[in-house]
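Thread: adenosine-5'-triphosphate complex, take 2
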Amino acid sequence: MSLPILVLSGIEKRFGGVQALRGVDFTLSAGEIHVLLGENGAGKSTLMSIISGAAQPDHGAMSLDGAPVNFQTPRDAHAAGIVMIPQELDLVPGLDIAANLFLGHEQLTGIRTLARSRMMREAHELLRRAGVSLDPALLVSSLRMGERQLVAIAKALAAEARILILDEPTAALSATEAEYLFGTVRELRARGVGIIYISHRLEEVPRIADRVTVMRDGGVVGEAAPDAPQAELVRMLVGKDFKDLFPPRAGLLGEPILNLVHARFVPLVDRAGWQAPQDVSLTVHEGEIVGLSGLMGAGRTELLSALYGFEARGRWVGRVEIGGRPVKLGSVATARRAGMAYVTDDRRGTGLVLGQSVARNIVMSTLPRVTPWGLASASREQAEVSAALSRFDVRPRVPSTRVVNLSGGNQQKVVFAKELLSGPHLLLLDEPTRGVDVGAKAEIYRQLRDLASAGLGVLVASSELPELLGLCDRIIVMHGGITVASFDAGVSEETLRRYSLGEVQAA
Ligand SMILES: Nc1ncnc2c1ncn2[C@@H]1O[C@H](COP(=O)(O)OP(=O)(O)OP(=O)(O)O)[C@@H](O)[C@H]1O
Ligand SMILES: [Mg+2]
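Output below.
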């Protein structure tokens, strides 16, 4: 490997009482993919915000091409060729894709003088290079999470970076889309771009890494070989040997909770890119965890949100039963009365109030239960919150922390704690472990299995096939808003992929 272009040494950063980085050394060479691993809250994103000028270190030095640098703003870093796609995307939902692609780079590209048609053409080309066929005139607010991720990648491509930082780029992508991203990233590497790649998906490491650095608790634990066995990576990450990621499956199923037979959802208004459920047949029993597999656009998110009546106005046709009785779903109030809870795939857009404390966020969904007669019971509230924080291992375990200051994975744990505390009978989950580290994942899986054993039914959409295969009792594949196949837990990834692609038609 050539000489490093980027060298960080002794980087320290403290936020109030939290020592986020304690003396981190890190290097990056041109034309390498350097994977950065670490538990939730290990300090990965903080380190990246220092490299990209969004934060300044308290101590330590950074140099680029051998010369010391000291970025005061993201603009400084950008001018030096450092581009970051943050973990929580910074696209502007109210603008169209094209406007987002060129936002902030106007001076660099002189795009201000470009005619709109030329801008659209260039946008189109950027999207193509990132592997998406989306109309650049679409509003970002109309896109699903995975598509937004791909737009963010296209935006980074537009910037002609020398150093590209990807903070959990595949968290919302399916295997097929991730594959495409790998291709794009390898192409950039071949052109000499240095790439820092953060992920909690350990199975990606051997596929993409030239070098692997593991962080824990604000420091660097060491480097791992790109082809190191996953167990070894986990040991470095967590600091100890790790038992099974997935709990044993339960044997016994109870009564059906949710039953759909050739059910279809008719939206009040058609929305571009919103794949309404067309023909859905599935059953979730008490004690059962049912997975939804499929590509982006298969209609998994739409199915969940139409069941919950969230951001989906319209009516269901066909058989829709809860607890054996027909039910008219269509509003969140109905869904909650029917015992449903919902964890969306967009924790920032729909799950959390960022400016509020962790405690406030957790209590929000449980208010009626915590204070049955509208009387605030502060001590009871506190007890519920601290129980939830320890059950989901939210770090730091400080109820007054504002959610916006938590690491990405810890925000996700808060969403979970909040929904489960409402004591649902049927839990709808959309990418529930997005951005969650391996230890916390195991904990979430264990909780889900425990709750299932106590009668909870779970319907979970996930792009991570290993997660579906390890966690679920049954997996249903969707394609074009239709449930095309249903498999028990022994199915292979390959089979799921083939059905997801629509290569095999429903039997
Ligand atoms: N602006 C901030 N104010 C207070 N604390 C912060 C702030 N930003 C980060 N932290 C804290 O610094 C620590 C490191 O957070 P960071 O976001 O870097 O973790 P991470 O490794 O990216 O985790 P994840 O995998 O969950 O994204 C965490 O304890 C976090 O709560
Ligand atoms: Mg992070």
